[in-house]
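Lecture notes, unit on protein representations.

Consider one protein chain, 314 amino acids long.
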Amino acid sequence: MSNKVLMPVIFLLFAVIMSACGDKTATDTASSPSASAGASASVSNTGTATYESELGPVEVPAHPQRIVALTNAPNVLSLGGTLVGVDEWTNKNPLFKDKLNGVEVVSEDKLEKILEVDPDLIIADAGSKNIDKLKEIAPTVAYTWGKRDYLAQQIEIGKLLNKEKEAQAWVDDFKQRAQAIGQEIKAKIGKNATVSVFETDSKNFYVFGKAWARGTEILYQAMGLNMPEKVKADALGPGYYTLSPEMLSDYAGDYLVLSRSSEGDNSFMQTETWKKIPAVKNGHVIEIDTEASTYSDPTTLEYLLNIFKEGFLK
């Protein structure tokens, strides 16, 4: 799930985009219409392959060279895919800024712009209202956000780009490293210590479950750290839960990961309500940049893994 944009907007777009952003987030429901969804067929003599998408088979370039990613652009970037168009949220993300020089910002509502960049492959959200029109422009593969977990989605993009081995290798390595760091963290903070992930848009606060980007997949899934019972009860199912400032202490764990924008109103950090939270008083707060934390792709995950390693083990 982000880019210090207003939170409701973030959630709406994150659901469309996520690509993490993120948890932001979900378990693999795996109830795909096609049991073999995602398995790419062998490359044909014409340089194409049949990708079994969740909406049916799609004939795609075996090695696409002009990709428009209305979703999952960070996943494509991590595999070295060549983008010619991305959504505005990926374009604004500071982690990808340098990699997107010359790449157009496009949207499904401005099809003429997509036509102009002449894509040979389009990646979109399965709920897009313009899927049929996108298919008229170029082969279009759609994904339902949250249908797969964050690592399975990366492998899926690897299959689409004919880079499944690279994707799987990164996943295997990342899981191993994140788990090892998680063990170090548990050894330091205690195996029963709890961690909460908060975010604020200057008006409201949010606490996240285990799959809503902001590093939640790393903390709760890869590292196996604990979340407070109230977070588990209220945020785990829906993915996030909205809090008033007065409710923060009820949902605060022994450690806090605080997602905030440096450009937002962070005056709450000077309030007594905030300062009285035990984790704050104990200096157990790890801050992350909201704008750089709303996806769950390899680049973002590596960025956050380093922050958590330094923050918990300092």
